[in-house]
Amino acid sequence: MESDIHNFHKITIEDRRKIIEKFSDLNEEDIKLMDNYVDKNSFDMIENVYTLMSFPVGIATNFKVNGRDYLIPMSIEEPSVIAACSNGARYARILGGFYAYSTESIMRGEMEIYDIPDIQLAIIKIMTEKNKIIEMANTRSKTLSDLNAGAIDIEIKIINDEIILNLIINVKDAMGANVINTMLEYISPYIEEITNSKTNLRIMSNLTTERITYAYAKFDKNAIGENIVDRIIMANNFAKNDIYRATTHNKGIMNGIDAVLLATLNDFRAEEANAHAYASINGYKPLTEYKKDNNGNLIGSIKIPVAVGTVGGSTKTSRKAQLNMKILGIKNSNEFANILACVGLAQNFAALRALANEGIQKGHMKLHARNIAISAGAKDDAVDKIVNIMLGENNISYSRALELLKGDKNGEL
Asked: Please, what are the domains in the chain?
């Protein structure tokens, strides 16, 4: 079954569920989780819980990545994000879909060493004992050791009068935070001993310059318009040269990525920090690039650090998150990273296409008007009536929706 689904938004929720059920081969227990089900495990995820906050979860359609079709669960409160993402994927699909690649899951943990009698001698002692330190660190995770992964190297840098030890670790399919921090805390007494120094912070870094994902798609010039191709390239160049534009440009990328991370209960705050820090390394720049091929088609690409896990963490606590991971149907963290980068690229392309064409507000305001109508109490056919009138009047407000709803009840619409 393919993810190329037209008018997914027009069918009933029940029919959407049937499509997802068939696409992802869900069982009866999975299907029950799609109902208004309180996931009681979620009450144990954080402290002082008193209720659950419900975010809507939708499906982005049309995605083909490395020749395989996907349905992408996304959780977000902002209207038009999922529609735009699906639309971007639809345009990418015309010439083959997305292609993506992720490097190995290399992370780094940092240890701050201070009160050092002799910095150069301390560095020599650390590097002399490097193999032993790495072996010690790898006793903290039998799982990684069995996979021939774990700590693989040590890097040293000096900041002021301190040594910053970076422990380089292959975390495989984990996000990595817990195992990295555990390793650092375990080796720190030995570091203090051999350097006659003290250690302060021992913590992973959320900037993953060695854990990078690349994604690529080609967009048919005839489908999007040659003029729009040029205008998208201009828009991306605008972001390269203006930090105010680049910030909003990259925020749009993260609209899509964060929504998938939230649906699967992965750490979207970490990925936000990671992506924006990476974009800042040589002065804040857009994470995407656009150019033409020899035939005038638009080539879009993204290069973004992605540190995401498919084992451990909150994903294993929430049954809803497990359901969304099952719908994704991914096998490992690299495949997950590939999906996230493609979602970010699709989201960015769709936003730039809208901005370069009719403007971003047309589709967004239609969905906003719908939300306003529903919040005012409109139901069934009244929703569309009120939305159409507010759009026609260019007057989208809660007070106007209430007026129109009253008129509908009185038979005046």
From this structure: 8-102+213-358 (3.90.770.10), 106-204 (3.30.70.420), 363-409 (no CATH)
Q: Tokens 């996931």 belong to which residue?
A: 39
Q: Indicate which residue of 129, 267, 271, 408 is catalytic.
A: 267
Residue 39 has pLDDT above 70, yes or no: no
The answer to whether residue 364 is catalytic is yes
Structure tokens at 387: 């939305």
Closest CA to 80 of 369, 338, 394: 369
Q: Is 251 a catalytic residue?
A: yes
Pairing of strands 150-159, 298-305: unpaired
Given the residues 15, 78, 193, 358, the one annotated as active site: 78
pTM, whole model, 2 decimals? 0.86
Find the catalytic residue in 240, 292, 326, 364. 364
Per-residue pLDDT tens digits for 50-100: 677 778 999 999 999 999 999 999 999 888 899 999 999 999 999 999 999
Sequence-distant (≥ 6) Cβ neighbours of residue 35 within 8 angstroms: none
Distances (CA, A) of 306 to 88, 106, 179, 290: 21, 10, 18, 20
Q: Which two tokens stand for residue 47?
A: 């402290």
Token pair belonging to 348? 């960015």
What pLDDT was estimated at residue 239?
97
Q: Catalytic residue among 251, 316, 366, 385, which?
A: 251
